[in-house]
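HUMAN: Now follow token order:
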Amino acid sequence: MRQRLINNRRTVLTLAVVFLGAVLLFNAFLKRADAVKQTQTQSQARRDPDNDGAAPTQYPRVNPKDPELGKKYEYTRSDLEMLASRLPSIRVDGMIEDDWSVCEAYELQNPVYGESGASASFRAFCDNEKLYLCIEVKDTTRQLTGEAPTRCDSVEVYLNEDGEKPERYHAGDSHYIFMRNGEIEERSGADARLIDHVVTETDDGYLIELSIFWSLSPEDRSDTFGLDIRINDSQTPGTRDYIIQWSDTSMMTHENLTKVGTMTIR
């Protein structure tokens, strides 16, 4: 009788251990399923369809290697004023300073959409704090209104700071739209607080001079970075009639940076 009680206790204990193990495994499975679902949801949320003006997903400007870097690179107006006093003779004022003449001019020679329209070139300069761009657009059909920024005269700038040219935007990537009327729109990864820009009308088009603060620390950038520039030419109100771009001709640069151009810091 005593032996039977001992055996029964062992059986109950064994069943309890098996049951507890099953519960733990089931909980682990649920947690794993939730993590996978969350990852898929975040991945889907980061897709920015080019739907001519839809509000994009904004990405945190945080270096994945050190989340605290995002806090270090939050610029305030006082920061901008302090750093401006340390810049070279190039100023974002709509004037072409002599320093720009020593920078190579790159012509945009890749038509992406339409038969004919605007032409453009740009010059680039950078230091440890900023990237400077001077973009000259020849476009005599001045259109300033449209339902979306890409359906009026505008310039799009795509920046990949670490030079990795990823299939999806990540930290250090940004997409800005500068409209001919002086307005700016933030797209994927963009932060207008890092931007200073001036739009000036010229005899045969317009000029955009701008600077962008690097969002990554110097340690997380390389000697090369990805860059692309697109010109949207509206010849009739509310219509994008012609597109020309420096590097990528896929019309997918808004979500895929694999075909942007390469700039080397010298």
